[in-house]
Design a protein that fits this description.
Blueprint: H1 9-19, H2 24-29, H3 35-40, H4 52-61, H5 70-91, H6 110-116, H7 124-127, E1 130-133, E2 138-141, E3 164-165, E4 168-169
Antiparallel strand pairs: 1-2, 3-4
Length: 176
């Protein structure tokens, strides 16, 4: 983490005392930074401010409703500004080249990746329920493993439609 401003002295001291620790338990019990520290920092002139036009553009792109009044808009701008500030702080962390970025949030150890691997052994039970039929080699379920009548369609997706006309889904085409 790059620590450059005088307000980061407390964080620098905590990092200095923690980084030399060999015991991971001790390291993990002491916070190295806090969200409150980030929120208390006053915005600098170098931080771009979110304009009304940019906010409205972002809201339209994300299909969110526009603010109802000025106070709502100011709250949204302040929230977005603090989120951008947090992302900037995360981006400023100095990460050594030996640390590989995450591909996704999951167990990326060899054991974890091996558990996610689809193999013939993991599919053996499902493959045993199928058979190859005909000269084209079509795959079908064996007779003993057929789904019981009525169970194949217990979920009725059309019942979730907000408005139906007969057996058809009615869609409102007028803009609100």
């Amino acid at each position: 983490m790059q620590l450059s401003s005088p307000s980061d002295v407390g964080v620098r001291e905590r990092l200095g005392s923690v980084s030399g620790a060999k015991d991971p338990g001790k390291f993990l019990t002491q916070p190295t930074w806090s969200l409150q520290d980030l929120l208390e920092k006053q915005p600098t002139e170098s931080e771009p401010q979110i304009s009304e036009k940019e906010l409205h553009h972002l809201l339209r792109l994300s299909a969110l409703p526009l603010p109802k009044d000025g106070s709502d808009q100011q709250r949204m701008q302040k929230d977005l500004q603090s989120q951008l500030k947090f992302v900037k702080e995360i981006q400023d962390i100095d990460i050594p080249d030996s640390v590989k970025p995450l591909q996704s949030i999951r167990d990326e150890t060899e054991e974890g990746l091996k558990g996610l691997e689809v193999t013939e052994e993991s599919l053996a039970d499902e493959l045993a329920k199928e058979e190859v039929v005909g000269i084209r080699g079509r795959i079908r379920r064996k007779d003993g493993f057929k789904v019981a009548k009525g169970e194949e369609q217990k979920w009725h997706p059309l019942k979730l439609a907000p408005r139906m006309v007969g057996r058809y889904v009615a869609v409102n085409t007028a803009k609100d």
